[in-house]
Write a structure and sequence with these properties.
single chain; 268 residues; 32% helix; 23% strand
């Protein structure tokens, strides 16, 4: 049995993972069947490697993963970072200053570069529920003391969509700004996206964009959908992603990835 795509690119949170951070047996089985039929599965996530590795290990995942919103291409089988793009700290500091001059003080977190880079968080930054480790900091200078992949920003009064829009208008010429989830607005190196990381990984695998199906749920998945031949939004996806998707499947809680893969297997 063949499979119509050579590459299956899946986001993690809100897509492959259920809300309890597990992957259902049905979805595991569907991915296993598709890979047995000749497709490769690649995880493409906003999470940096240290926040992704335990999930990949649990999956028995040996291949490449795109982490850190496209900044990192990681070889899971070898536990090796193949590429890493860092955020220019001078530009990021300027962007943060300009944005705070526009909207007032922000709560900030940052993802340190590297295989074991910490996520550091300022006072007032609201953390997601769950086991992901963070390191608090009080001294603003600590934010810039080591290489970073990205910043996370939160505002006490602006919702995620508004903060993202205002940040793009204010500092969009210096950095990229994406919304990756509830309470997760990120400042990235200019020009970086999941699509840039995925294209690098796909080249290493000898696979083209025309041979790729992608699954996601948030606006940060829009570039990946633009790159792939077919973009599938989850039922729980943000409206901006649904607007550019080729197809909408069931939610992450109801095996949306498996629903599509099983149908493709039936047809092939």
């Amino acid at each position: 049995m063949s499979f119509p795509y050579r590459l299956i690119a899946t986001d993690l949170d809100g897509t492959l993972l259920r809300s309890d951070e597990t992957i259902s047996e049905r979805t595991r089985d569907a991915l296993a069947a598709a890979t047995a039929a000749g497709a490769a599965h690649i995880v493409v996530t906003g999470r940096a490697v240290p926040w992704t590795r335990h999930i990949l290990d649990d999956l028995g995942y040996q291949g490449l993963a795109v982490c850190g919103q496209g900044a990192q291409v990681y070889h899971a089988g070898e536990h090796k970072l193949l590429t890493s793009v860092t955020l220019d700290r001078q530009l990021a500091g300027l962007a943060l200053s300009k944005l705070e001059a526009e909207v007032g003080p922000l709560a900030v977190a940052a993802s340190r570069d590297g295989l074991d880079g910490n996520v550091i968080v300022s006072p007032g930054y609201r953390l997601q529920e769950g086991p992901l480790p963070v390191v608090p900091f009080d001294d603003p200078a600590e934010l810039w003391s080591a290489p970073l992949n990205k910043l996370y920003i939160q505002h006490p009064g602006l919702d995620d969509d508004t903060l993202t829009r205002v940040a793009r208008q204010t500092v969009g010429g210096l950095v990229d700004v994406v919304m990756a989830g509830a309470g997760i607005v990120e400042i990235l190196p200019l020009g970086l996206s999941k699509a840039t990381g995925l294209s690098l990984a796909a080249r290493r695998l000898g696979v083209k964009s025309t041979q790729t199906i992608a699954f996601g749920d948030m606006p940060n998945d829009i570039p990946m959908f633009g790159w792939a031949a077919h973009g599938v939004a989850m039922a729980n996806a943000h409206d901006e992603l649904k607007a550019v998707a080729h197809e909408i499947t069931a939610s992450n809680e109801h095996d949306g990835i498996a629903v599509v893969l099983e149908e493709l297997m039936r047809r092939s």
